[in-house]
Amino acid sequence: MKRNLTLVLAFFMLPLAMFAKSYVINLGIVTTPHSFHYMAAKKFKDIVEKGSGGDIKVNIHHSKSVGNETSILQQLQLNALQMGVITAGPIDKFVPAIKAIEFPFIFDSFAKADEILDGKIGQDILKSFKSANLVGYHFLENGFRNITNSKKPIHSASDVKGLKIRVMNSQLQIDIWKAIGANPTPMPWPIYTQLSQHVIDGQENPLAVIDQYKLYEVQKYLTLTRHVYSALVFVGSKGFYDSLPPKYQTLLFDAAKKASIYERKLNRDKANYFLADLKKQGMIIDEHPDMSSFRSRVKSLKSQFSGVAKKYLEEILAK
Ligand code: EAX
Predict the structure, then answer these.
(1) Residue 6: its pLDDT value, please?
(2) What residues are in contact with ligand 1 under a 6 Å CB criterion?
(3) Counted domains in the chain
(4) Blockwise average pLDDT, block size 10, the chain, 319 residues
């Protein structure tokens, strides 16, 4: 009798299982599988595929295979891609509020960055992504940005004068390096070739990125300016998010949070390694630049802020 009941139940349950809706997330990043961006995406993939019992499949498209970060954001708006791990810089054209956390020298430690990004200000900025038809799931970490160049040692801001410095596709980043005295050129990542061909003299990125992309082969000088705390964001398509049942909406937020916390730890645990490796690779490193010369040249940029970006920046500076 019991066996018959089991067979009857299996008969009716099987078709239901066959009709369980499945979803595909195409996730775009511009960096290689050696990057922290990729490691975060892989952790996200593992959590989502396991948590959905296989109903959701995540495909990671790395190494700029689906376009640069600005293009990935445009595709997310159209639900042509469903997720991305994107650097905060290029996001500011879509979500102006995020400029507030890209301002120079507002964070002097990882703890301070976490306090703001995981606190009310950061969460409110993430919520504002929906007005750009995007979902801001969670902040993760690129790291503190430092300047490199192939021409000369940079100790103070005056040494930057006239250098062609590549910056991210962000008006704020252009303005920062103009104020410091450089000749900034916005350019999508990656940029190794342009550096090797001396189309540009220098660039600025966290130590992990400088090391992982072997920029020490084409950049002789590194100055530890730590001028901007560079956040990454798990960004999603709002159209895709809205198509999901609530249980999977929750799963994506939970997976993005766990993957972000995992990636921040990876990045921070290796911070000393990257500096040591860059020294070993022969870079000439100024570990104690004249930071007041840099700070004094960028503080007036606050006057360019308006709207919510200004509101959040003032709140951060008041903390
Ligand atoms: O890792 O475009 C950039 O400079 C960003 O830092 C990107 O995340 C490279």
Answers:
(1) 67
(2) 31, 87, 142, 168, 189, 205, 209, 230
(3) 1
(4) 68 61 97 97 98 98 98 98 98 98 97 98 98 98 98 98 97 98 97 98 98 98 98 98 98 98 97 96 98 97 97 96
Residue 272 lies in a domain: yes
Domain assignment present for 13: no
So what's the pLDDT on residue 4? 75
* Residue 211 lies in domain: 23-318
pTM equals 0.93
94-131: burial string, b at 16+ Cβ within 10 Å, e else: bbbbbbbbbbbebbeebeebbebbeeebbeebbebbee
Atom 5 (ligand 1) nearest CA: 87
Establish if 15 belongs to a structural domain. Answer: no
Distance (angstroms) between ligand 1 centre and the Cα of 160 equals 20
What is the CATH classification number for the domain harbouring 238?
3.40.190.170
Pocket test for ligand 1, best of 168, 194, 219 (most atoms within 8 A of CB): 168
Which residue's CA is the nearest one to ligand 1's atom 8? 87
Q: In this structure, is residue 18 part of a structural domain?
A: no
